Predict the 3D structure of the following.
Amino acid sequence: MTGSAFSSLDKVRIPGQITLGIELPLDNDWSPAGEARRLADGRPSGVPDLTRHAELVRKVDGQGFAAVWMRDVPVFDSVRMGDAGSVYDVFAHLGFLAGITKNVALGTAAVVLPIRHPMMIAKAAASVDVLSGGRLILGVASGDRPVEYPLLGIDFETRGERFRDAIAYMRTAWMPGGLPVGPDMREPALELLPRPVRSTIPMVVAGQAQQSDDWISANMDGRFVYPGSLDRLAQQASVWKAAKGMGGAFITAFHLDLADDPKTPLQPFRFGGRVGRNAFIDHLEQLQQFGVDHLAVLLRRSGRPVEDVLDELAGEVLPRINVRPIRAAA
């Protein structure tokens, strides 16, 4: 435990600059070269190659990136979704990453709250937070894949209410005074251990989670919005900053195909684009001016090997955008 006011959110939220993170998996399986390897390996479409996963995550951790992010995909739906995300159970994965990294924030984008009991999420999240030295950023969502809800016997239509209840439960469960056992009721004899490294764990909402902007700004520590047009991102960031001021973090993502030629202009595609590093740096600076604190980069559409792209981002892009180095957690 520590009395430091430094939060894991401060790894991705540094005033006056934009930070860069990496979204897992670290595979370019959506590129032509990656697709050829997938077919040779006999993997289903949407299932990444994880054979070098630990090695590449350690590389990211040592290169100055602010965070690694992972999705929560309990069930691989090969027909309607076609994407297995990072494959592993999200909290088992976080525990593994806590043990092999030292610097990056560990972020989820995002844990689907309404399909799990909040006591179990609170316990797992606090465990990861302690094991990682206070580096967890708990991204949360209501879930947009209806397949899991009927499998678990949970009503899809009430997920917004369940999301709100889960947020309130976890905030209370992490505090001293006993476990929540009912509305405004706590049982002092029951405690959820371990407690987070600090008084709570930063929670970031991914998407809208069936909530109003007012509720989100009043109850969440950050927003992780889906990639969109620059006009849309500017509007969303403006609304967030107006409500939170200098507090909280505004985060978005980008599917990056980094061209060999650094002078290649941005060629947009859905959720991202093919671009050389010069135009990518310009894009990052524009996002920062809009109020974006952090960009999570996904490399699954990269035409180049993932390792080469990480090296170029670390060697040529991070020095241009990092006004101050990313702090280690206290």
